[in-house]
Design goal:
This protein has 212 residues and is α/β, with parallel strands linked by helices. It has eight helices and nine strands. The strands form two sheets. It has a five-stranded parallel sheet, with helices on both faces. It binds guanosine-5'-monophosphate (5GP).
């Protein structure tokens, strides 16, 4: 996927990024409940499953050796290291998108999101911001069973990421979960309604008087 692979299509993929602790996973899960027609892009990772996570649904959990073999064989559209673990999006997922009419959502850290943006046309990129930096620190402390140093590292990383988000198409400020999901829903429905995505439907309408 070195060249920009997709033009603007009727089906849509949305990429959501956020600093660790900003609430992105909860937003994506709630969004997917509301939009069962949207498929979640299941990434590969070398980290261990957390309680409740299911192999093949949340991630494909694989060993570091297996991950490195996949890198060597060019199986990833993008991959990155995050806090000592490897994460990657399979080219197969993107092929599935390009050959189907599926809508998809990706949960990717910013480097992966940018790599995907360089590789593929037509995605919609959304960054989720915590309401304040204090709030981010509170969330990092609440979720972490980690030492202060690791929390500070995550905070510094989040600051660096936030300083580099101007290329995203949309920013959602996560004041509360329901509102953030409403915003993501609005972005999705507006993007689905863009004229260039609907040219086929428009032509059908003009030829047959109906859109489907
Ligand atoms: P977690 O371990 O908390 O599930 O995810 C850690 C980070 O990895 C999150 O920011 C998540 O968005 C990111 N991530 C998940 N899958 C992928 C992937 O396939 N590629 C990249 N680059 N990042 C990913």
């Amino acid at each position: 996927m070195n060249d920009k692979s997709f033009e603007i299509r009727e089906n849509l993929f949305v990429v959501v990024s956020a600093p660790s602790g900003a609430g992105k996973t909860s937003i994506c899960k709630a969004f997917l409940k509301r939009h069962p027609e949207v498929h979640f892009s299941v990434s590969y990772t070398t980290r261990a499953p957390r309680p409740g996570e299911v192999n093949g649904k949340d991630y494909f959990f694989i060993s570091e050796n297996e991950f490195k073999r996949k890198i060597a064989e060019g199986e990833f559209a993008e991959w990155n290291e995050n806090y000592g673990y490897l994460y990657g999006t399979s080219k197969k997922t993107l092929e599935l998108f390009s050959k189907s009419d599926q809508n998809m959502i990706f949960d990717l850290e910013p480097n992966g999101a940018m790599a995907l943006n360089k590789a593929c046309e037509g995605g919609v990129y959304v960054f989720v911001l915590p309401p304040t930096l204090d709030d981010l620190m509170v969330r990092l402390r609440r979720r972490a069973c980690e030492v202060e140093e690791a929390i500070n590292t995550r905070f510094e990383k989040a600051l660096a990421e936030i300083n580099n988000i101007m290329w995203y198409n949309y920013i959602i400020i996560n004041n509360n979960l329901d509102e953030a999901v409403d915003y993501l829903h609005s972005i999705y429905t507006a993007e689905k309604s863009r004229t260039e995505r609907l040219t086929n439907k428009l032509n059908r309408f003009l030829n047959k008087g109906i859109v489907s």
